[in-house]
Amino acid sequence: MQSEDLVRVRVRVRDVLAVPGIDRLVATYFDPDGPFAGTSFDLLGENPPDVLTLDDLLATTLLDISWRPLAIRALLAGSGPVNAGLAAIPSYLDLWNAGPDALQSATVLHEWLDDLPGVGPVIASKLLARKRPRLVPIHDDVVLRVLAPPEKGFWVTLAAALTDSALRHEIEGIRPVGGDSISLLRLLDVAIWTRHSRSRNARNARRAVGVPEPGPLLPVKA
């Protein structure tokens, strides 16, 4: 990993956290009466750590994705590979403390899911973030555009960035009241997405709490 990649990710994260009102914006996302997935993504139905359930598939649809019939059949018929893959990944492990073995196991399972019909890397990351919220970050086009990690190096670069305890403390500073169940990775994902998403709901949320629209992302020098 190049030092400029690590510097850029840390700077971009801090840029998001420094936006006035970002804590209110994140709280709006987790408002149970709002239009967003909120904590339902994590808490909906049953979520046993090493078993894929129908509730897991339903929960991921709250993040604006859908499952194709072929993928659902493959997941339900072939839950053995998923369950075995989950069993190889500790449920208590934080990304910044993960060793190469745990990251490799997560990568293997992510690639297996990625190859299912109509799934791809984003949906695969959302399902794994439901099962391993402390280890696997969601990476959609908004997050990748903002953090600009190296290709195929998002997890390891973010893991390195979050070894900075001060940065983790800053992320914890935007945790909404009553949001104890939300992982640090999810807090960061929501902060980035609500700040930079061009979706109607995100724009409305920014307007409601008085957060201005984001300007262009400026280059970061190492």
Briefly characterize the structure:
The protein has 222 residues and is an all-alpha fold.
Main beta sheet, described?
none
Q: What is the average per-residue confidence, as pLDDT, rounded to a whole number? A: 95
Order of helices and strands: HHHHHHHHHHHHH
| Portion in helices | 55-70%
How would you characterize the overall build of this protein?
By secondary structure, the protein is mostly helical. 57% of the residues lie in helices and 0% in strands. The chain has 13 helices and no strands. Helix 2 packs across helix 12, helix 4 crosses helix 8 and helix 12 crosses helix 13. The longest helix has 15 residues. The radius of gyration is 17 Å and the shape is globular. The mean pLDDT is 95.
Defining key terms:
222 residues, mainly alpha
Topology, please?
Elements (H helix, E strand, L loop, with lengths): L2 H15 L4 H8 L10 H4 L10 H8 L7 H9 L1 H9 L12 H15 L5 H12 L9 H7 L6 H8 L3 H8 L11 H13 L3 H10 L13
